[in-house]
Amino acid sequence: MSSEPEDRETQGTEHTDDIQQAEETPGVEEIQDTQGEQLLYAKVLEIGMYTGLAILFITFTLYASGILAPAVPRERISSYWTQGVHEYLEAVNHDYLHMEHPPTGWAWTTMLDKGDFLNFVGIAMLAGVTIVCYLAIVPMLLRKRDYAYLTIAVLEALVLSLAASGILAVGH
After folding, report:
1. Residue 40 to residues 31, 47, 130, 134, 140: CA-CA distances in angstroms?
2. H/E element, 89
3. Which residue among 16, 25, 43, 62 sits deepest, i.e. has the most Cβ atoms within 10 Å of its Cβ?
4. pLDDT in tens, 125-145
5. Mapping DSSP to helix (H, G, I), strand (E, B) and coil, where does residue 114 land?
6. Among 75, 123, 71, which residue's Cα sits nearest to residue 92?
7. 37, 50, 51, 47: which is closest to 153 by C-alpha?
8. H/E/C letters for each residue in 33-66?
């Protein structure tokens, strides 16, 4: 019989613990609110990923089938594989491209009429889709007045854009 008061005390503590846990646990509205930007980010990422993969497939098909001639003939490309990047760019520029300087950075965008350079479009799209994802959630974060995550999303997009731009080239 002495266990009855303990059971009542334990039950009261358990009930208080349940209430406290319920107060600390995010509600359905809060979870849905957070999931909104996560779902939007994921949807944009999915669309960007499938689009990038489709572009890679199409541009590689154009290159591999010979429909779009490459800058470097496919039968010669393996002869450059033993070279470092700098040597490769110098040699390919000298042998095929005849540009004032070897192509670095975004110079490939001037050679999209060549099958081997057109392949970079899909790669660039896949690399840049994260920036688009961050920018896509900015209006939602602004509406919610979630300034902390808004700041993080904008800064992330800016840093990634700056890095992709080549403005901060280091070591060249």
Report:
1. 14, 11, 12, 10, 9
2. helix 85-92
3. 62
4. 999 999 999 999 999 999 999
5. coil
6. 71
7. 37
8. HHHHHHHHHHHHHHHHHHHHHHHHHHHHHHHHHC
User: How many domains does the structure of the chain reveal?
Assistant: 1
The answer to the question of residue 4 being in a domain is no
Domain that holds residue 105: 33-165
Distances (CA, A) of 60 to 66, 120, 145, 152, 171: 10, 10, 44, 36, 31
Residue 11 lies in a domain: no
State the Cα–Cα distance between residues 156 and 41, nearest whole angstrom: 13
Identify the burial level of 118 via C-beta atoms within 10 angstroms of its C-beta, where 0-12 means exposed, 13-18 middle and 19 or more buried: buried
Q: Does residue 137 lie in a domain region?
A: yes
pTM of the model: 0.73
Q: Give residue 58's identity as a one-letter amino acid code.
A: I
Residue with tokens 């503590």: 13
- For tokens 């490939």, name the residue: 108
Span 3-31, average pLDDT: 56
Mean pLDDT of the chain: 86
68 and 115 in contact (C-beta within 8 Å)? yes
Q: Establish if 156 belongs to a structural domain.
A: yes
CA 83 – CA 101 distance, rounded (Å): 18
Q: What is the band of 83 on the pLDDT scale with cuts at 50, 70, 90?
A: very high
